[in-house]
Prior knowledge:
By secondary structure, the protein is an alpha/beta fold. The chain has one domain. It has eight helices and five strands; from the N terminus they run ββαβαβαααβααα. It has a five-stranded mixed beta sheet, with helices on one face.
Amino acid sequence: xxxxxxxxxxxxxxxxxxxxxxxxNRFVSARTSVTAFTNPRFFKxxxxxxxxxxxxxxxxxxxxxxxxxxxxxxxxFTVVRHPVDRLISAFHFQQDRQKSxxxxxxFSKWLRRLEPAMAKNPYLYDNHVRPMDELVPTSARxxxxxxxxxxxxxxxxxxxxxxxxxxTIELVNARKKSQTSKISPTADDLERIARLHRSDFERFDYExxxxxxxxxxxxxxxxx
Length: 224
C-alpha cells in the first residue's frame, strides 16, 4: 500500500490487489515526488528471510495501524472491485502467471478449497483474495473500478492543486482476449463468495446477483 509525497502532503493508497492497483501506482508516482512503502521485488526474497508475511503494498489495515497512525496522512484513497470479478481475476493470475494453481483446476474447485485455506492463512496469495474491507481504512476515499480509473484524475487535480500529466491512467497487466477463458460462477460459487466476502458486499454496496454491476469493464481485463 504505497505512500506518496507531494509537496508537504502525504498520500496513502490502500492498494486492493486485483483492482487496477499497478496502473494507479504508476499514475500517482508520476504525479508525486516520492513513492515509499512498496517493494516490487518482494518475492525475490526467500520467505524465511522476509520481514513480513505480505509485500508492503498489500498490507492489511490492522497491521498498518500498528506501524503508522493513519492521522499522519493528508489523504487516503482506494480502488475497489466487485468481489466476484476480483476473485476470478485472482484465480487467473495465480493459475496463469504465478503457477500456484494447476492448469487442470477449475474455478469452482479452487473456490471450495479457498475458504479453509484463507482460515488457515489470511495472508494467502499475498492478500490477493483477502476481503477488501480488511485492506481499506474507513477514512479512505473509495473509487470503483467499474466506473473507470480515470475518475481518479480530477480528484488528484484538486488534491494536488495542479493539472499536470499524465491525464489518463493506462491499463497495466491486462489479459488479452485470446487469453481470457470465460468463467461463469455457479449458484454455489456465488453463495460461497457472498459468505467469504460478506463485509465487502455490505460496506461497498455491491450486489451478489451479478458481477460488473455498476459499469461493465469487459472480460475481466485488469489483472492487478
